[in-house]
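Q: My collaborator sent me two sequences in one message, no labels, and asked for predicted structures for both. Can we handle them in order? The first one she listed is below.
A: Yes, handling them in the order given. First sequence, followed by its structure tokens:
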Amino acid sequence: MTEELSTKFNPTEVEAGRYEKWVNSGVFKPSGDKKAHPYSIVIPPPNVTGKLHLGHAWDTTLQDIIIRQKRMQGFDTLWLPGMDHAGIATQAKVAARLAEDGILPQDLGREKFIDKVWEWKDEYATTIKQQWGKMGISVDYSRERFTLDEGLNKAVKKVFVELYKKGWIYQGEKIINWDPKAMTALSDIEVIHKDVEGAFYHVNYASADGSIVLEVATTRPETFFGDTAVAVNPADERYAKYIGKTVVLPIINKEIPIIGDEHADMEKGTGVVKITPAHDPNDFLVGQRHDLPMPNVMNADGTMNELCGADYNGLDRFEARKKVVAEFEKMGILVKVEPIHHEVGHSERTGVIVEPRLSKQWFVKMDQLAKQAMDNQDTDDKVNFYPPRFEDTFMQWMGNVHDWVISRQLWWGHQIPAWYRGEEVYVGEEAPEGEGWTQEEDVLDTWFSSALWPFSTMGWPDTESEDFLRYFPTSTLVTGYDIIFFWVSRMIFQSLEFTKKAPFRNVLIHGLIRDEEGRKMSKSLGNGIDPMDVVEKYGADALRWFLSNGSAPGQDVRFSYDKMDAAWNFINKIWNVSRYILMNAGEMSADQVSSALTKVADKTAGNVTDRWILTRLNDTIERVTEQMDKFEFGVAGHILYNFIWNEFANWYLELTKEVMFGEDEAEKDVTRAVLLHVLDNVLRLLHPIMPFFTEEVFEKMPNTTGSIVVAEYPVARPEFNDEKATDGVALLIELITAVRNIRAEVNTPLSKKVPMFIKSDYAEFLEGVAPYITRFANPSELTIAKELKAPEQSMSAVVTGAEIYLPLAGLINIDEEIARLEKELEKWQKEVDMVNKKLSNERFVQNAKPEIVEKERAKLAAHQEKFDSTKARIDELKK
């Protein structure tokens, strides 16, 4: 006997334990069928700093939808999971945890501190994998990777050494972005610019004898200790005469030269700028041109150093600013303080204001790598972006990219494979032989190793690795638009350099998840949503449905609990439909279902509603598959929703009751077969989006075997297509709907029988479906004819192919009925005009597919028919 579903849908019960069964059954491993086309995805690795957030849940949901569908379609699928060590963020988290016990990383030393970080990694990696399980993602855990594992470390070293040998990795002193809290360098894209309140501080710098007074303006007066010149434009008649002379730095009484340089803008401010080469990127270039000293006046933690004098040494930079300004005011050289709003860089990881700082770092020279990546977009190996507009984002960034600072002053990460002995520098995959060598203390930017992810996880640098040969390049990457610069771009140029291939064929870009008011989720606003809390309340399937249907590719989506309620209600609807079908299905085998369906296709069994729903199912399969292939999951979901809720549940299931409550057992078996077939296909179509619920129902069906995870994905079966049945049931549904609307307008419930007259050229068909009309419209008498006279005092409706009249004496007002019909006439006129406008557009007619044009012409004919019939009825009532 068919195992029944519980009377109430409970997502917690449905999802409990199922993920572990899937993992243990091995259904997520590659098929091993080398005849099947490979389809591979590498998961965007979450960092091990904490729990999954909604954005990562979105990534994994969309990728899981893709891989589940491809697995069902017979592809040899590989979805490789992994995690990112997240150098800055993870080290900061572990340091903060140690600080709670009064321990500093320096107290432990590098090796023992790293041991503590590995403990953190193991703890949070376990948490993340549990959350992956709750989301139901179908990854192959036997291939799981971590950006600091032995294989990836080998790849990182090889890439570093090869780029160094080519001269594309180098050491240099430059102004870089410095995070005073993490005490490390940052790349440009790790800096977030925020609008903050600030000020221009106008200060007079004077010569020793007081004959020269130059007014400079700065937003960072605390850096004046590092000034090594004052610049004026050589073409500026006001100041050109002072070039070569000197002024005295206040407080520390140090003479610095007045230089001529075009960096000083004559039209901006006073035309005089102070030059602080170690603390400003533009000043650094001026300093290089004029061979100026470049003293660094700040410590790594953002405090002032000994070059600032005893009163300022060790003082926080912002406290120093206040003290310097107060001293300038006391000295009488502070001209004014001008409040401003300006953009200031903040660390993406720690949130503190970034300090431009002269520092010796390791860099990747980007000109050739960027050129290769851009040139590749003109080849057959190009990366396809969805939506395409993000290719422009990628190209613009690559076209304006700066050299990439890759060294980080951390302990957690890939230690740079460089060694020093005196003035000697050695770079290699292994430590140099001999005594006295010391390895570089710095580690590499986390994105350096993440950039190698698509091929390093496949076994590279072993280019004969089975996985590398089989699954690289990968098929599709899914990620948010905010990570194009950080990760997508770097994967592309590193992969092209080292494998001569693009790392993936497709990049699907999604947006950001915002709160109900459209605000970005953040800790400061307190509007963040934990996806696990959502799963706990609604189940993973409901969250996955929301995430896949929330927006179009590339668009942001607003999270709301109303949408989650709607997702849960949809699943509950299908659950109840499934219960009804399974309760009435009996024990039909797959062969019995197949035999019955063959008879329906041959028209030797079944009725018009059976042939209609099978035709509609075919159309749904084709359209959903087409949209899924284009990554338009929202459109696919909309198509599925309309078919399941409206056509299958609200109409076909109700229509089947005419048979199921009847006496003909043969007819019942056919209807059971159709119900089971449609439900089976609905579950398979939904499975990539709702894995837990669909497996629960699938395994309880009488005619299915195995797991739905590896069941075949639906394909349309042309033998089921029946246009006449489609048109006929469409007319039946439109007719029943129109009758219900008329009854509602005059407050006549369905329980009250009223006469019903139908005039139609399809009278013979309507006579055949009269039992359905009777069941759903409840007429006291039903008259169907090709020609008939409209009864007096009747409400009417015009549908495609028929006119309906309900005599409602005493309930109808002729003037009101005419007014209602005139509104209908106006509606049909607009419809006719709209289609006419489209068909009169030559570009549309010439460029659209012939079947689309023909569909519009058929639509025009139907609208025109309704317009004509409505007008005729109005004229009749006015006589």
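Q: And the one she listed second?
A: Here it is, processed independently of the first:
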Amino acid sequence: MTAEAVPDLGEQVRVLQQRAVEATNNGQPLAGRRLLHTALRLLGWSSPDTPPGPGPDRPAVRVLTSLAGVEVVLGHSERGFHLLDTAEAAVAPEDRGVLLQQRGLLLVLVGRMGEALPYLDEAIPLLRRAGEEVVLARSLLNRALLHQIAGRVRPAMADLGQCAELGSRYPSERALVAKARHGRGQCRVLTGDIPGALRDFDAAGVVYAELCAEMLGPLGVDKARALLAAGLPSEAAIELDAALGLFAVSRLDQEHAEAELTRARAALATGRPAEAREWAARARAHFRRRGNETWAAVATLTVLRADFAAGRRLAAVAAATEALADQLTALGLRNDAEAAALLSARANIARREVGRAGDQLAKRLGAGAPPPSHVVRSGAGAVRARPTGAGGRAFATARAGLDRLDAHRVRFGSFDLQTGAASLGDELARAGLAAALGTADPMVVFRWLDRSRARAFQVPAVRAPTDERTLDAVAELRHLAHEARTAELAGRPATQARRRCLALERVIRARDWQTGGGDGYHAGAPFADVAAELDRAGSVLLSFLTDRTGFKALVLAGGRLSLVALGDPAAVAEALARLHSDLDTLCGRRLPHAIDRVVRTSLRRQLAVLTEHLLAPLAATIADADVVIVPNAPLSTVPWGLLPPLRGRPVTVSPSPSAWHAARRGADGTAAGRVLVVAGPALDHAPAEASRISAVYPGGTLLTGAHATVAATLGALGDAAIVHFAAHGHHEPENVLFSRLDLADGPLMAYDVHQLETAPRHVVLSACDVGRSVVRPGDEFLGFTAALLYSGSQTVVSSVARVDDQAAVEVMYAYHRALVRGVRAPRALADATRGEPLTPFVCFGA
């Protein structure tokens, strides 16, 4: 070998090793291994297992060190550590930092976290002195991962910051900088900053898509974890299914198993414990095949969570999770250990071993525990306190948990995330309500209901920042939705357009999730203020709730509170489903006389059942007063004005007593201010209805035909006092942000409403179904009507079922004529529907 050839050979080996490291880091370990074997052959090594000769062999040691990492990534842990031992026997002093950091990384990959940290701590100053800046940056990234897993967010963020700063010095290390941003997002999830985490993930994803698409799978898993922490398990499952598809064509076995485990958590959060157990058991087997007992222990915890959720083997769950907590603590997984201890306490509570559970709950959560863990602990504490008769302690514990939940979700600017986060406190809400009912004090129940329900409506609205990517997605969605709707009306399929619309909706929704929160909550209205406003309005307040015995109504009338037992939830659910079916059957149809009679008889029967179970016990209390109703989730689609005791009576539906009070104080019930009337396409009665109503308001704005565009409508909404829409409406229960009204050039969506700087005070939606809502835990209402109320509209009149077109025209004309005379909305609607008793319009807000 000539002297001139030596540098060439060294350079070839160095390039091959660099390419191998990049390939492995970017999710292509098989390619990395091939490159490293080529480098060893160039160096004259026939086999990586060949013992090194005497003295340092720097190029070979560096290649062997990298190859050890590749083998561990591929699941060959024993071989990887053997190669590292081979390299260590010949390592030069100046390369010791490189070898130490690699040993630390390999220990991380096999789950031996406690052993890994000392190696990285020793390696980092050696690498800094040796000027190995790129290897140093990667070591900092790996140490940050260890800190993050242990719940040490502050040192993790410090390491990630240094990693990004070092990596940014080298144009070739953009992927490394993206991984630091990715890691920062993982840390933000632990602190509860979900919008910030999603922004970091989004930024990392842009680089991954360009340079290392294989990393999009692990990134999808972390996005899913963030969505789980925000209470959106169905959306997390979508991310995970996409990630699992990517792992199917890669050899990232560890990340694949983590995706399976996270998929188990998503199934558990959506109430499917059997499916969760299957995913978690699959992940555990996957980890064990890799020899990673640390992650196998975490998977075992999820298996036990599934058993607990299914009510299976509670004694075994309690004992196993208590032992598992000690094992996870020894492995350095503090947050998982605390989760195991908490699960053991909850299992003991379910077994009525409250003393044992109390000892476990008395231990304080660590400072690095994520916010949802504190909420779950508070819920368990409230449940534990109830059987011992400590009503005051149970209620105080539940209130403290609600405070933590509020502090968590107030960081979200997205209404979607704010309402989703309530699911994290589902057990807490139930425990708090049980504790409040246990006090036998209606005032305590009132305060809990007003404090715990529809909390998103008390968060100041935050507008999502507009950016070019989102604007383009919204524009494309509107265009394609209009094309799809036009095709469907013409009887042509629009499968591809609808599929693309769903993809765009997901992009827009994901961008909305990245919006940060505002300045906390609006203060709830004091009880005395709610009572006084009800007296001024001549109204009684009925807040409905459900416990183990059935429906109850908390009644506020004449300044006095009472709690009244009502009927059977199962009977109400069946009657409500039949009622909606009957209304749909009758809507706009001329049925044969015999069928018409049967349907109307059924309809009257269902109304009688609803009256019997929900209103009959309240007849003497409400007398002839106007009624304000705060429904819970099972009653969100009741057309209250159709029930005989409420027919012709002013009825208002509101998310909570405080929300009603705020809307009432902001509404004046008159037609003062600019009026906008909009008629949508493909609806025969819409132009005539719009013209008649516009004539009631001289000087108002009328948009019909080609002029009724989304842009023209949004431009006129901001300074309108009263807005009337005569348009087709579509409630989207699977994606309520895109419930919509059809306009001339596309849909006006609930998403658009959330972007309004100023919402119209009073909105009338003469459209089918857009009064319907999806109700999440915490009685958080979502939909087109909810979007208007959240954005600041005081009153929204909309339908909770299909509406006959001609009947709607007459009702709406009479309604607006009453508004012009100064009649308040609930009375105006009650009077307008007297002649059309089957119109299911509801007055929401005030």
